[in-house]
Specification:
The structure holds two protein chains of two kinds. Chain A is α+β, with helices and mostly antiparallel strands. In chain A, 26% of the residues lie in helices and 31% in strands. In chain A, the strands form four sheets. Chain A has a six-stranded mixed beta sheet with strand order 6-7-8-3-9-10, with helices on both faces. In chain A, 41% of the residues are buried. Chain B is mainly alpha-helical. Chain B has a domain of 176 residues: Orthogonal Bundle (MetI-like fold). In chain B, strand 1 and strand 2 form a beta hairpin. Classes of the chains: A alpha+beta, B mainly alpha. Chains A and B meet through strand 6 and helix 2 of A and helix 9 and helix 10 of B.
């Protein structure tokens, strides 16, 4: 159905190697998220799978068949672009019907599928409008509609939510997850937002400079990051990474401790510091603690409201059982 | 400080330009209108008094009128078709990344900077001359009888010359339009299974439609008035007498200023109809 395998795939633009040899398997029906900072090659990787870029070497297999040199249209994949890439001069109906029309499907079947997709995506009332008359979220849904009518082997999403405002993004995130549960089709989703990755993925692929840093389920990545990069990238607020003598106490070059694994107290604790800015979210409060002698500011996450004020003296105690240890290469010490 | 003072100062400073423009436009326009209602033959009695709409009726009923209209339409239509079709093709070609792109683009635009009289003379003497022209040599090289371009294929020759002048303009505008096309749209269409020609037909061409309309209307306004190209080549002979050239002949060759003026008023009305459409479309473009 939709099993995608990359075998020693590389990509070079001139002399610059964007993707060094890379192996990856995406199982049928899996929601895989490529995540990484901008310029890490995640979009390039998606475009290689889509066929919009040619691989420099290696092999891409879709359902065990070699698709390395198959043109994009013949790969049976559908893509949702960051800018939605709707055809501005066509109505929503024609936009969604376009891939079917190109496949020379008969008109009755096209109508049936378009209306089916419109019903799923709540677009029925907008079928005769132009993309220019729709809101951002509706355009996003049209782009998804255009992808689902083709009944592809896999969906590719290229940062589809980055043009939406925060509230809409949360809504669309749920809708896409919902769609995945219903269709049970393979989906590959590219984002730089680790929250999207954590909330939607079955499997997260963390990329840095074209290299895969770690592959695993969201919780695996959260609980056992393979190196300091993944540790710092996954989780919000970021994990506190501490080097120096404090880390040496734990026989490590670097130790990592998540903000929610630190206890704060006004009287006593392992580390002493001064409260800086605190961010109140209602359900949680993030405290930024300075002058602890541990290098950078330490972030602490506390439940509910707390009564520490700017400049207050504070004592911190990390939970020893959940401290992540890394060696001088940044790799996890088991 | 948009006060009374600054506003009146602004008016005062704009006044010379406005007066100059108005004078340049209004004086000839008014004189044309006045002459068109008069029998005015400068070498045969001068001003012979008011004649009402007689000039207008005579201009339209003259045996030269309809051939002139058809010659005008053929030239304008021919040039439009050629410049639009080749303009789109050239724009696509120039949009491709290639070595020396900047220089090629400047070269393509160059013909637009050549004066119409000069380019027509160059075409007439260097290319189309039946004895020494490059085309004549080419024909002879293949053993064919050289064509007498300006008499045997007079309309086509004029269309060729004018198209060569206006192609850069069309290409330039269409090229900027093509460059504004979102490449993700083309990629989306590619993924949707549209091969190259269908991508052109369903995505590129609709995207260019507005630019093409603007090119069409601007060119129509200018092409309705082409004169130099005819004046230096056929002098209106061999069926190349356009409406503009007919007006010129009425005024200067027949020395009938009244009749020519009436023809001029027809031409003004025609050009304004096109201009109204143009302003609407360009205005919409600016709104969007």
């Amino acid at each position: 159905m939709g099993r995608i395998t990359l075998d020693k795939v590389t990509k070079r633009f001139g002399d610059v190697e964007v993707i060094p040899p890379l192996d990856l398997t995406i199982d049928d029906g899996e929601f895989t998220v490529f995540v990484g900072p901008s310029g890490c090659g995640k979009s390039t990787l998606l475009r290689l799978i889509a066929g919009l870029e040619d691989v420099s070497s290696g092999q891409i297999r879709i359902d065990r068949e070699d698709a390395t040199n198959v043109p994009p249209a013949k790969r049976g994949l559908a893509m949702v672009f960051q800018s939605y890439a709707l055809y501005p001069h066509m109505s929503v109906r024609k936009n969604i019907a376009f891939p079917l029309r190109m496949a020379k499907m008969d008109q009755a079947e096209i109508n049936k599928r378009v209306e089916g997709a419109a019903a799923v995506l709540n677009l029925t009332d907008y079928l005769d409008r132009r993309p220019g008359q729709l809101s951002g979220g509706q355009r996003q849904r049209v782009a998804i509609g255009r992808a689902i009518v083709r009944e592809p082997a896999a969906f590719l999403f290229d940062e589809p939510l980055s043009n939406l405002d925060a509230a809409l993004r949360v809504g669309m995130r749920l809708e896409i997850s919902e769609l995945h549960k219903r269709l049970e089709t393979t989906m590959i989703y590219v984002t730089h937002d680790q929250v999207e990755a954590m909330t939607m993925a079955d499997k997260i692929v963390v990329l840095r400079k074209g290299n895969i840093e770690q592959v695993g389920s969201p919780l695996e990545l959260y609980q056992t990051p393979r190196n300091t990069f993944v540790a710092g990238f996954i989780g919000s607020p970021k994990m506190n990474l501490i080097e120096g003598p404090e880390a040496a106490k734990y026989d490590a070059h670097t130790i990592g401790i998540r903000p929610e694994h630190i206890k704060a107290s006004a009287e006593a604790g392992a580390w002493e510091g001064r409260v800086g800015v605190s961010e109140h979210l209602g359900s949680d409060t993030f405290l930024h603690i300075h002058d602890t002698g541990l290098g950078e500011a330490i972030t602490v996450r506390m439940n509910g409201e707390v009564d520490f004020k700017y400049g207050d003296r504070i004592f911190l105690t990390p939970r020893a059982d959940v401290i992540h240890r890394f060696d001088d290469q940044g790799l996890r010490i088991a | 400080m948009a006060t009374q003072h600054s506003r009146s100062a602004a008016r005062l400073m704009m006044a010379p330009a406005v007066i100059l423009l108005l004078g340049w436009m209004l004086v000839p326009l008014t004189m044309t209108l006045i002459f068109s209602f008069k029998k005015y033959l400068p070498l045969r009695g001068g001003d012979l008094g008011w004649v009402g709409f007689e000039n207008y009726a005579r201009f339209v009923s003259s045996s030269a009128f309809w051939p002139a209209v058809s010659a005008t339409l053929i030239i304008v239509g021919g040039v439009l078709v050629i410049t639009l079709v080749f303009g789109v093709l050239l724009a696509i070609l120039l949009d491709q990344p290639m070595w020396g792109q900047g220089i090629v683009r400047i070269l393509v635009i160059a013909p637009f900077f050549v004066m119409p009289t000069v380019s027509a003379l160059v075409w007439k003497n260097i290319f189309m001359d039946p004895v020494n022209g490059l085309f004549a040599h080419l024909w002879k090289f293949f053993g064919a009888e050289p064509l007498e371009w300006l008499s045997q294929a007079s309309l086509q020759s004029i269309i060729l010359i004018v198209s060569w002048q206006w192609l850069p303009f069309a290409t330039l505008i269409l090229l900027t339009a093509i460059q504004s096309l979102d490449s993700e749209q083309l990629e989306a269409a590619e993924m949707d299974g549209a091969p190259v020609l269908k991508r052109f037909w369903f995505i590129v061409l609709p995207h260019l439609s507005r630019a093409m309309t603007v090119v069409l209307l601007i060119q129509t306004i200018f092409l309705l008035g082409i004169f130099a190209e005819i004046f230096v080549t056929t002098q209106g002979a061999f069926g190349t007498r356009t409406l503009t050239y007919l007006i010129y002949q009425r005024v200067l060759e027949s020395q009938n200023v009244g009749l020519g003026s009436a023809g001029g008023v027809y031409a003004i009305i025609l050009a304004n109809i096109v201009a109204i459409f143009l302003m609407r479309i360009v205005g919409k473009n600016l709104d969007a």
